């Protein structure tokens, strides 16, 4: 959408908003409606049903409010929720505790992944989980919110926003040397430093050819799915 309150929001968000409106404002029923429309395999579970708004701060000290504005902003230093007391859905907490493998990403770092870590009960459930957690790093930096950030920067942001000690393995895409992607914008599949500024040790990285040949700046969904399925029997998590 180019105008009004919906300007800058992805089509998927607009479809979900319309479905929620059709269901009288009920988020979970709205998601079920989208399931039916798109014939979704699997289940989409909201982290919370509360209306939330993101607030960010850039390294230059600029305050930015709202997901759509943050997505277009370069140099984000911090993201918070305007509401501090947020309740997670019981279905989300149950799914985390019962999972065999947890996957974080791929997705927009500050406006998609980190907001989940800012929900206290979600963060606590992830810390108490028994299943391993894999972070799927994006293939490219994202214009706006992660422009100019390398893999270290992505990892640092996750650690600083509640991700410390959560990630067991990083799955990164091998750098593409063909197609339309600019290799200079792709996230190099290695950490430059051995630890984050907080001293948090870096998790191991597994590099696989999981980028799309048609759109090299994105993942190939089938290659990514196969890589994750192969990881599952290899990952063993010690009892917490």
Strand order of the largest sheet: 4-5-6-7
What is the CATH domain class of the largest domain? Alpha Beta
CATH homolog superfamily of the largest domain? CofD-like domains
Total number of beta strands: 7
For the termini, the CA-CA separation is 46 Å
Structural notes for this entry:
With 240 residues, the protein is α/β, with parallel strands linked by helices. It has two domains: 1-44; 86-234, Rossmann fold (3-Layer(aba) Sandwich). Helix content is 33%, strand content 12%. It has eight helices and seven strands. The protein has a four-stranded parallel sheet, with no helix packed on it. The longest helix is centred in the middle third of the chain and has 13 residues, at 151-163. The radius of gyration is 18 Å and the shape is globular. The termini are far apart.
What is the gist of this entry?
With 240 residues, the protein is α/β, with parallel strands linked by helices. It is 33% helix and 12% strand. A hairpin with a 4-residue loop joins strand 1 and strand 2 (63-65).
Which keywords apply here?
single chain; 240 residues; alpha/beta; Rossmann fold; 8 helices
Summarize the topology:
Blueprint (H helix, E strand, L loop, with lengths): L10 H12 L4 H12 L15 E5 L4 E3 L1 H5 L4 E6 L8 H9 L3 E3 L4 H9 L2 H9 L4 E4 L14 H13 L5 E5 L31 E4 L12 H11 L9
Parallel strand pairs: 4-5, 5-6, 6-7
Antiparallel strand pairs: 1-2, 1-3
